[in-house]
Design a protein that fits this description.
There is one protein chain. The chain has 174 residues and is mostly helical. 66% of the residues lie in helices and 2% in strands. It contains 6 helices and 2 strands. It is elongated and about 65 Å long.
């Protein structure tokens, strides 16, 4: 069973790295900005909490499966990345991410890498950082840029002339 938990914890970390790498490769600079800010918030809050609770600054080891102290920074970082990138992820990836985070949270406790309180604090810090970034900087619209829509319609033989009104109250101008 320890091999399973190790694999789950490492897979969760890999998922977060893949999400960040994908944002970089696709040149989604606003998403990269949001991810970096969320990770900075996680590290700042975690450092302060570690100082208050453990009377020492954050301990980060090279080994991803070694004890890192309070709060559980691995979980906090992954949760922050998933929370910030969630609107950009396909539904199957979101479902896998939620399951992996849950299993990894159990895994670090099962492997005696962290205490349950460390994991809960990590979950709280990660969710708070993700929510703060989404609240402060907004969520991505999830719609393609208007120039891309105009180009796609033009290539299909359609002419796009604004303004037009969708079923909602927004008016789009070309």
């Amino acid at each position: 069973a320890p091999g399973f938990w190790r694999a789950v914890v490492l897979a969760t970390l890999v998922l977060a790295v893949v999400i960040v790498t994908d944002a970089l490769v696709r040149r989604r600079w606003l998403l990269v900005r949001d991810l970096v800010i969320a990770l900075l918030v996680v590290n700042a809050v975690s450092s302060v909490l570690a100082r208050i609770v453990d009377s020492e600054w954050l301990q980060v080891e090279v080994d991803p499966l070694s004890p890192w102290g309070f709060p559980e920074l691995r979980i906090a970082c992954v949760v922050a990345v998933v929370a910030v990138a969630r609107p950009e992820l396909a539904r199957p990836v979101r479902v896998v991410a939620v399951w992996l985070v849950g299993l990894a949270s159990l895994g670090v406790v099962a492997l005696e890498i962290a205490l349950p309180a460390d994991v809960l604090a990590g979950l709280a810090v990660g969710l708070a950082a993700g929510a703060l970034v989404r609240f402060a900087l907004g969520s991505p619209l999830g719609a393609p840029p208007i120039d891309r829509v105009r180009e796609a319609l033009g290539s299909a033989g359609q002419v796009f002339e604004g303004p037009f009104r969708s079923e909602g109250a927004r008016v789009w101008r070309a």
